Amino acid sequence: MFGAAMYNAIPTLDVLRKRGMQIVNRCWCCKRREETISHLFVHCDMASEIWRYFLQPYKLDWVFADNLQIELWRWRENFGSRSGRKIWQPLPFAIVWGIWLERNNRAFNEKENSMDEVIRNIKSLIYLWGTAKEIFEGYVVEDLVLR
C-alpha cells in the first residue's frame, strides 16, 4: 500500500477515473472535494485533524507539501532522535493506513467512525507495530490508545 502511495497508484477515485471508470469523484471523508491521494491523506479536513492531533502535543508546526510522497520523505528526514525515531517513523504510515481503512469503511460499508475512533484505531496500529519491535515493552495497549 505504501509503495502504491509513493507512486500515486492507490485506487482513489481520481486514479480509477484515469483508468477509464465512469464514476463521480467526491472524497468519501469530507464529501466536499475530489478524492486524490494528496487530498485524502494530507489536505482533507479529516486528515488535517488527525495530523494535528499527533503533532500538537509536541508543539510542532508542520506545513504540509502538496503530495504524499514529499510528505513521507520529509517526515523520515526530520523527526525524532535516534530512540524517538522508533515511534516517529511508523507514525505517518499508521496515519495513512488508518485514513485508508476509514475511507474504505465509508465507501464499502456505509459506516462512518467518529474522529475519536479513527484516532484510537491509528494509535492501536502504532501499538501493534511497536510491540513487534519491542518499542512498548512493559506497556499495555491502554497506555497508548486511551491516554
Automatic annotation (TrEMBL):
**Segments forming domain Reverse transcriptase zinc-binding:** 5-51
Task: List the GO molecular function terms.
Answer: RNA-directed DNA polymerase activity
Q: Which InterPro entries match?
A: RVT-Znf
The record's keywords, sorted A to Z, are: Nucleotidyltransferase, RNA-directed DNA polymerase, Transferase
Write the protein's name.
Reverse transcriptase zinc-binding domain
User: Which organism was this protein described from?
Assistant: Macleaya cordata (Five-seeded plume-poppy)
